[in-house]
């Protein structure tokens, strides 16, 4: 794109802001090379990759790139046969292998977001893993890029010999120094190395006394560094060992390089993938830090819509930024922004340009998620003072030169940004030139945003279709900008108001206002009225929005209360069922107690039997009443007291009846047993004297009568065996008790209980329940042909 416009908009500075979020220099350099693209498919794909990276970075495990070594040049040499990497270059290669392996391992972890890793799959597939080569380099080279002694047995032997020879030579030189007279020795100096040879420092006068080879002297010439004759042979031996060490190190480096050489292509691919991932990581961090959204990209001819737009460079400075909303429909091609100075017009202009360029470069821009960014093919900007003394250009000449370039190259797919249109010359001529320029660009279909102070240009939207006025709101009371964009209304100039606030002489200001053309004053009054109405409408909209939010909060609270009530209702229902079960178990226990008391005594008399039956029926009535109270979801409306039947009036099974001996309780007639009647009252059946039963006015409730326990109603058939396998110990108890109830009601003499062998816990619990049940006379494990230890046979009676 137009490099001049990119520089004027400071797009490279924005790239640098994003690059600072990279984890490596290579990744930062890759970000700085990003440039706006015109391909919508590429733009969407790039923003999809950034979104996937944001998902990974924000995930529970998080992610950040591994270190990336800068070994591009060594990798280009690696393909040359016979070439050798240095120890530092091999260490960089090992680091690349390790980073590539760890990155691949992290991004293929099943705990990562599958959709995000699928988007980044083209990069992940290029990562190489060569654990053996990586380990070989790490074994031979330390973190300081030095070949380790353990790199090979030969190197270990040579270095051991070298250290031993150096130690012996130092001792020899120290002995020689001690033999010298004190006048020949140099105080506070000891054996040292000069030109790769071990030497001892002596005074110049000792030259003839010591003999040997002088390798160096001090800066004053008073001290000589001498290798005495006795140390020459030992020094030569050290040089031989050093040469042998160098040869062995060279051999090791060649061997490691040859081992890595087959990975040349894979390493290049891995390095490129790592750099791309780091560049995506930088963009993801920038987007998260400044709450950037993944905006929709559209064709330039469709207009655009920027929601909650913020200037990228102002955001980076940490200053509060007022977001703006700007939408241009397809039939709106030029936006003319007017208003006072310091109102933020230039900031708006550059923000629109940078948001567009960032989006087309694959960088999420600081906008809202509902934004639509137009894809342009080129951008032109005439912003600021570009006068040049060297080029003999005045401010106006510089503007004209830029405008000429815009007219030469702008098309329907261009974005044109012009600041202070018509300035730098006579206002009348400037306004005429500006109007002609905007008319031409509008007819071409270019997306144009221009700012101006000239009042004559504010009338252009009424003359040229496609031109729209806009202004940046200004607080006329405080005389301070609010930086809020208002589309459709031109801005007023507050020059005289500001001058009055700065206490210019009132007489001068009055004369200035008198000199204003009547048309200007009328336009100012009209704009003031329009702004006042717009402010009133905005206040009403804000009040309506606040009321809507308040109602929404009330609805949420009501929904929360409703959910809480439903949960409380479910909890109460669970509690009711538990209480009902406890009541029924208590009733059964009382019945069993009465039966045991009758069995242990003498043969009961008729009076005793009636007393026992009365006790059982009273308890059944008590528990039935509690059960109905706990389980009823809604109480039935009060009914009139039942009309008593006349003596002799026939009753049939299923009729609604009332029982006088139970306080007039209503129920349903189930059956007759001689002089007694069985009546279902609530959830239980009671046996009462037939004379105590009267027909009720209500209809039969046989169908509606709730039955809480399986066994409340007669069973025509009962199973001779039950299968408890698969049930837990606490689950099988009610099943077993119900089966015994059915078997007793059907008159069965035995019941076969299948519980399986397993751990034996189920069998033991079955035995405990049967042992405690008075209705079970005896029980045993099944015979070999009955299921063995997996079956218990209970004898009833």
Structure description:
With 797 residues, the protein is of the alpha/beta class. It contains 23 helices and 23 strands. The strands form six sheets. It has a six-stranded mixed β-sheet, with helices on both faces. A hairpin with a 4-residue loop joins β13 (467-475) and β14 (480-487). It is flat. The model is unreliable at 387-392, 633-648 and 700-716 (pLDDT under 50).
Low-confidence stretches: 387-392, 633-648, 700-716
Question: Helix tally?
Answer: 23
Number of strands: 23
Sketch the major β-sheet.
Answer: 6 strands, mixed
What general outline do the C-alpha atoms trace?
flat
Q: How much helicity do the residues have?
A: 40-55%
Which helices and strands appear, and what pairs or packs with what?
Blueprint: H1 3-8, H2 11-19, H3 25-32, H4 40-57, H5 72-78, H6 87-107, H7 114-119, H8 121-124, H9 131-140, H10 153-179, E1 192-194, E2 197-203, H11 207-210, E3 213-217, E4 223-227, H12 229-260, H13 264-289, E5 296-299, E6 304-309, H14 312-316, E7 324-328, E8 334-338, H15 345-360, E9 372-375, E10 378-382, H16 395-409, E11 414-418, H17 427-444, E12 447-452, E13 467-475, E14 480-487, H18 495-501, H19 506-515, H20 518-600, H21 606-631, E15 656-659, E16 665-673, E17 676-681, E18 684-689, E19 693-695, E20 721-723, H22 729-746, E21 750-754, H23 761-772, E22 776-781, E23 791-796
Parallel strand pairs: 5-9, 8-12, 8-13, 10-11, 11-12, 20-21
Antiparallel strand pairs: 1-2, 2-4, 3-4, 6-7, 13-14, 15-16, 15-19, 16-17, 17-18, 21-23, 22-23
